[in-house]
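Lab meeting, item 3. Inverse folding demo.
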């Protein structure tokens, strides 16, 4: 990769976003909610590492910080995609979509 292309790369988020996510993760409310939902305390280590890698990239253009940040974002996206949808998406509208809503009920 060319040096000019290397300098044009930007992190997928602003560095402050990583710090905000870390602070939210460490908040009492989030810890309580996570413990109530999952039975464990949330791990906020990755948000802090991402913030430090982003800051390192912004200040010194360290290639290892860039690669670590890219790998972390790829893992985060892959984790979001592994869940299956709750409902099956339909391809066509129902056959009776244009009928009045109460067409099946008898008239009083």
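The presenter then showed the designed sequence:
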């Amino acid at each position: 990769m060319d040096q000019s292309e290397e300098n044009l790369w930007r992190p997928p988020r602003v560095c402050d976003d990583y710090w905000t996510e870390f602070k939210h993760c460490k908040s009492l409310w989030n810890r309580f909610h996570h413990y109530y939902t999952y039975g464990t305390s949330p791990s906020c280590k990755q948000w802090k590492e991402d913030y430090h890698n982003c800051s390192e990239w912004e200040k010194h253009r360290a290639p290892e910080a860039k690669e670590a940040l890219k790998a972390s974002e790829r893992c985060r996206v892959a984790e979001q995609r592994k869940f299956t949808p709750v409902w099956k998406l339909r391809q066509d509208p129902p056959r009776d979509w244009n009928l009045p809503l109460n067409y099946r009920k008898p008239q009083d």
